[in-house]
Design brief:
about 70 residues; mainly alpha; about 75% helix; about 0% strand
C-alpha cells in the first residue's frame, strides 16, 4: 500500500513540476497518509476502504501548494 500512496502523491503533484521543497513536502504528506491509513485499518476497514478514505481525506493539492 505504501507504493500506492506514493504513486497517488506523485500524480497529485505532477502538474506542479519540481519545486525546491518538493521531496520534503511529499515525505511529510506521505507520513500523514500512512498514519491515516493505519488508523483506518485498525478500525477494521479493508485495504481498499482504508485507501479510498485516506485519499478522500487528503484534500485539494492546490490548497496545499498555496501554503
Amino acid at each position: 500500500m505504501e507504493k500506492k500512496l506514493e504513486s497517488y502523491l506523485d500524480s497529485a503533484f505532477a502538474p506542479y513540476g519540481d519545486f525546491p521543497s518538493r521531496d520534503e513536502v511529499k515525505q511529510e504528506l506521505l507520513a500523514n497518509l500512512r498514519e491515516k491509513y493505519a488508523d483506518l485499518k485498525e478500525q477494521g476497514k479493508s485495504d481498499e476502504e482504508a485507501y479510498q478514505a485516506t485519499i478522500e481525506s487528503f484534500g485539494d493539492v492546490a490548497e496545499i501548494m498555496e501554503q
